[in-house]
Amino acid sequence: MKKLSNEAQNGDYVLPQPTPEPNGVIGTTYKDSAPDKIAVINLPKGAPNVLMILIDDSGFGQWGTFGGQTPTPKLDRLAKSGISYLRFHTTALCSPTRAALLTGRNHHSVSMGTITELADGYPGCSGQIPKTAAMFPEILRQNGYATEYIGKNHQIADWETSLSGPYDRWPSLQGFDHFYGFIGGETNQWQPPLFRDTTPVEMEIPKGREGRRGG
Question: Which of 63, 92, 174, 197 has CB atoms 3.0–4.6 Å from 68's, for a disulfide?
């Protein structure tokens, strides 16, 4: 990623970035007028792709990457080409762990002390991630990256999951350009209630698979 400004290096980096002061000149006629340049943020040459995979409900002994018993050569190859973090904190629950991963903060500090269906009025447990806790994809997006969220999203308070919204805490308003997946804790494996951004996707269930579910 491109080098951060002096403000960012000093800990004063904020989102969204302040609108730059206009430098265009409006004169009496076009001859003594000059337009400003429109700022377009582009990634620098050689900027890395960022791929993050979170596997729900999986113990340390299951997956090959980082020491499990099941061979996963392609995942191993991906891991070796990236950065390995050795002190990742898991909360043993999917919603809080995902919230901590996406924000880089303790799950209670972003109001995700438990899964969203069990959210309540206790401090740190409302299931409503505050807008003051920027998601890392928002930082990537505002620095020129295209971002997408695919798969399970279990980060929306239960009473904010209807088709009428509000959509403030859906992925497409948390730094992701696009979202394709489901929003609850579990779903039907053959006819999942999928969304493209905030629009439901119609799925046909295969014959003989009616009523079967999976996490």
Answer: 63
